[in-house]
Each structure stands twice: as structure tokens, then as C-alpha cells.
Amino acid sequence: MQNEIFDGTLNLSSDLGWPEMKTLLLEPHKVLILTHKNPDGDAVGSALGLKWILDRLGHTVNVVIPDDSPLFLKWLPGYDDIIVHDRKPANKTSRLFDDCDLIICADFNTPERLGSVEPLYRQSGKKTLLIDHHPNGEPFTKLNLINPAIGSTSEIVFLFIEKLNLTEYIGTEAATCLLAGIMTDTVGLKVNCSYPEVFETVAGLMRHGADKERIYHEIYNMHSANRMRLLGYSLNKNMKILPEYYTAYIALTISELNSYHHRKGDTEGFVNYPLSIAGIVFSVLFTEQNDHIKLSLRSTGKFPANQFAQKYFLGGGHLNAAGGRFLGTMKEAVDYFESVLAEYREQLSANQ
Ligand code: 5GP
Ligand code: MN
């Protein structure tokens, strides 16, 4: 079957032709939607957006996330119905894998990103549709909708439904979740959205009932005072600038986090601030976890945060937004980071 191409300049490709895709969505299925560990706004937004649409299409749908998401996503319609694998008895999730006949993986491109859910997925052997926008993936399924040129998986979900002429199934709840996903992956419609089609998608979602101002407010203006003070501390006392490498980083230990009564998600977005300093093209946030150091990496221009994360910090992601981890102490992590930066000096300099 010849692949039809999205009518705009952004290609959506799939191993299955559009007519078969449509048939798949019009026949009732027991669908299990999965997304990656440390689920962010696009992960949760795309998964819940799809769930609302598929519900309306008559499917039976469950969403499983490996672990909990930040508090600023919990207002999303349908959040309370999500099954958080780490919190539920494991047999609940495993029953959902047994019962479903279609798995949809949203916002990741390798099963390892499923964390504690990965073994269940690998054993399941069920038909899987992958919807994602990460680059350099090795699709692990025959059915895939992958487009790294698109800023968020949530936007791909909208384009997919639009392509199949099924937008009548997008209600206010779905539109809200999808716009929240677009909003978070584009940092409030500021990055990864320099193509006109994304604003047509935003307009489309608003027409389907999404309240853009409210979504922005819920995501960006509902933090705690402690979170704001932790941000102040991070930027004032903690941020280290390495001018020779056009790089800045923030490293927060568990005890520093605790002294600001840190709650999951509080440090989300901190990594973006150093990039607003003239000449800084690479910013990294290190946060100490119980058994590792977590890294969030952001870059500007063509500096490949994902390659860097993959090469040195067991991670990956997008060109300008990646994640990774380090097994060791915070001091070892930052020392190692500073030592490997030298290799990238020219590339860093070229992007300032
Ligand atoms: P964050 O800094 O928000 O945790 O992650 C930024 C981006 O990198 C997200 O798109 C996320 O999916 C991706 N990412 C985070 N951690 C990892 C990882 O360990 N492996 C890979 N491949 N991608 C990651
Ligand atoms: Mn995403």
C-alpha cells in the first residue's frame, strides 16, 4: 500500500496505509496506551488525548504510565483514571496487557524508555502502533507514525486524526490534553514550533474546545512558593557558568532539594533558564535521585544535546532537549561532565 503523505510540508509516514489505519480506528479494540517513564506533559497529554478520542470511537481504553508525573499535569481531564504501574499491584497492569488487542506507544522510540513496564511490553507480543517525534529511533513495531520534524507527539495525534477525517471525535477533553502536550514540549509555544502548521493545529484544538489561557495557567502558574524559592537558589547560588564552553549547569543534591520541600516536577523547566544568558548554548541540570544522578540537557542551534547524552550519560532525546543519568556521586557527575566537554568545544563555539 502506497503511503499517503500529510498534505503540508511535514511528512507523516506509516508502514500501514491510511485506509487501513482508519479501519483499525473504526473497529472496536481493547486498547492499552503506554508512555515513557518520568512522563512529561507531551507523554501524558498525547496518551490522554488519544484515550478521549478512542473512547468516543467506541474502544475500551486504558492508559498505563510507568511512574507518576509532575503535579502540574494532574489537573488534565482523565488523569485520575491513569494506571501508575509503580503504584498499583503489578498484576493489575499485567492483566491489562493480557486483555488488550492493540497497544499504542506514545512519545518514545525504544522499549527501554518504558522503565518498569518494559518486561510486560516485551512479553506481550501484541500488535503495536507507535506514535512519536523523537529522532534516530529504531521503530520496534511495524505500525508507526514517527515524525521528528514535529514539535510534539500530541501534535502528531491531532494531525493523524485530522488526516483520517475523524476530528468530530475530538471533544474538549481531548483537545485540552493535546494542547497541553504541545504547550509543554514547545515550552509555552516558544521552541520547536517554527513552522506555521503547528499554529494551525493549535487553532484547530482551540476550535475543539481547548482553552489555551487556562492550559497555560494550569501548567505554568500553579507552582508552590517553595518551588519558586528553589529556582531562586538554583540560579543565584548554584548555577555554574563555564564561559570557555558556552555552557552553564545547575547541580541539586537531595539535601538541597529537601531543604526546599521539593516535590516531583518542581525542577521541571529550571534547565531552560541558563540558555537565556547571552553566549550560553548548552545547559544541564543535575538532580540527585536515590540511586543515580539525573540529567536534563538543553541546547540551542545545532548543538546535539541528544548525542552528548547518549555518548556520556546513558541517555538520548531530541537535538535540543535530552535526558540522561550518571551512576555515582554528584561530584563525580559534574567532574566527568566538565572533563568531557572539551571534546565538544568547537561545536559549542560554533553554535553561540
Ligand atoms: P527531560 O530533560 O525533560 O527529562 O527530557 C528531555 C527529553 O529527552 C525528552 O524528550 C525525553 O523524552 C528525552 N529523554 C529523557 N531521558 C531520556 C533517556 O534516558 N533516554 C532517551 N532516549 N531519551 C530521554
Ligand atoms: Mn514529546
Keywords:
single chain, alpha/beta, inorganic pyrophosphatase (n-terminal core), Diaminopimelate Epimerase, Chain A, domain 1, six-stranded mixed beta sheet, 13 helices, 17% strand, binds manganese (II) ion
Task: Walk me through what this model shows.
There is one protein chain. With 352 residues, the protein is α/β, with parallel strands linked by helices. It folds into two domains: 4-220, inorganic pyrophosphatase (n-terminal core), CATH 3.90.1640; 225-351, Roll (Diaminopimelate Epimerase, Chain A, domain 1), CATH 3.10.310.30. The chain is built from 13 helices and twelve strands. It has helices spanning 18-26, 41-56, 90-99, 118-124, 153-163, 172-185, 196-207, 212-220, 225-238, 254-259, 305-312, 330-341, 345-350; strands at residues 30-35, 60-65, 83-84, 102-106, 128-132, 143-146, 240-242, 247-252, 282-288, 293-299, 316-317, 321-326. Strands 3-2-1-4-5-6 form a six-stranded parallel beta sheet, sandwiched between helices. Helix 4 links the parallel strand 4 and strand 5. Helix 2 runs antiparallel to helix 6, helix 5 (153-163) packs across helix 6 and helix 6 packs across helix 8 (212-220). The chain is globular, with a radius of gyration of 20 Å. The N and C termini lie far apart (45 Å). Mean pLDDT is 93; it is low at 1-10. Bound molecules: guanosine-5'-monophosphate and manganese (II) ion (MN). Residues 42, 107, 133, 152-153, 185 line the site of manganese (II) ion (MN).
